[in-house]
Amino acid sequence: MTGRVFDDAARARYLAHVAAGHTLAQAATATPIHPNVPARHARTDPAFGQALADARAVGKKARREGVPHGEYRYNCLQCRCGVCRAAARKGRAGRRAVEADADGADGGAVVPPGQVRELRAGPEFPSSPIAA
């Protein structure tokens, strides 16, 4: 190095790590520089700032492509391929089956404590404001 901690070679290595999908902290550790150095240089050097923004976009795409297809990718990353749609359908069906089992034997909904399911007027509720 020529005495500069974050020279052109270090910048190129840092940007390569970011574009490969590493987090900013991981890229800084691999370069080896302090994690605040690239942010400071991005503020003071517009060309490096733009290069960092481009590398972050490429890295974000690389990380997304590394996520396996399934219900998470369907729900969070809006992937609509056949694998993700089938996993989401299966997950929803499983959750609905669990909810149906928890509702009770008669199929009626279980009312959480403190919530009123239905108001009825009648002699068993003499203080009811609803007229019978």
Which key terms come to mind for this protein?
132 residues, mainly alpha
Explain what this protein looks like in three dimensions:
With 132 residues, this protein is mostly helical. The protein has six helices and no strands. The protein has helices spanning 8-19, 24-30, 36-44, 46-65, 71-77, 82-103. The protein starts with 7 loop residues before the first helix and ends in a 29-residue tail after the last helix.
Mean pLDDT: 81
Broad shape: elongated
The percentage helix is 55-70%
- From the helix content, strand content and strand pairing, which structural class follows? mainly alpha
The Rg value, from CA coordinates, equals: 29 Å
Annotation, overall tally of beta strands: 0
In this structure, how is the largest beta sheet organized?
Answer: none
Count of DSSP H/I helices: 6
Weakly predicted, low-confidence segments:
none
